[in-house]
Design a protein that fits this description.
Number of helices: 9
Order of helices and strands: EHHEEEHEHEEHHEEHEEEHEHEE
CATH class of the largest domain: Alpha Beta
Helix content: 25-40%
CATH topology of the largest domain: Aminopeptidase
Strand content: 25-35%
Number of strands: 15
CATH superfamily of the largest domain: Gcn5-related N-acetyltransferase (GNAT)
Distance between the termini: 16 Å
Number of domains: 2
Length: 306
Amino acid sequence: MEMSSFASRLEFREGIEQDWPAVQAITARTWGGEDYLNQDLWSAWINDSTGALHVATFNQHVVGFGKVACLGPAEWWLEGLRVHPDVQGKGVARAIMAENMAWFSRHGDGIIRFATCSENEATGHLAREYKFRNTVSYVNVEAPTAQHEYHGFKLLEPQNADLVWNYLRRSPVYRVDHYVESLWKLYYLTRDRLETYLGDSSVDVLGWRQHDQLSGVAVIYNQSPEPALQLDANKLYIGYLDAPDDTTLGAMLGALRGLAEARGYGHATWKMPKGIGAERVVGGSGFEITWPDDEEIRLYERPLNV
């Protein structure tokens, strides 16, 4: 993959605390100034010894950066790819991707993933260049809280791990969407991760009871899973939702609106996976897609050895 003459003159090093003013100058011009990357998160990235934070410099000036993070055994994540607006279109993003993937080839194992907006055509093109595959896509849906009955949900505990895992292994939804969304990251829902969630006070794993059996699963957040980032205090965040049919999904969505109201939130929000048939249910349950038409988050993945 040929680099531009500008990109070929870039130098790379690890990120440091002193980079923050230059990083902030980039994030201030990203996403209309609404970039989630703050100084606390930058510090957390620097202190993460399991991955790598690569900073691209030109004449000793920071022009971009990107991070490789380890989410779990054989599970890696690319995040934070940013390029200074003044040098966009000069191959900087491609050079950062090359640096990240070279590091992953030396130090990683298993699968590496990342998510990007469908409107970001440049990153989508990089994904194809590096043989990433789009496995699932998501849209954001939200609903105001409402007075719905929610006692069909039961808070599940560590001793329920076998029950939940057996449900998921048979679930058509889980066959399409294996991921729990958390602040724009998508975590593969393994048996080990399920057990972690069941014992984590910041997360509630809820079981939907129907005919005296487990008939659905929801994962919601009680607090931010990232200490450096804050959740919107007015929203109940749904990280994963699994129902066996449209009727049950509609009942669960209504119950989550009721639970959100009982807990003092104003809205419930969910990154809804496309391709599971949920689109035909969410509207009738009071949820609406909040993004423009055809805009979605696309999850890409690639094994170490392609």
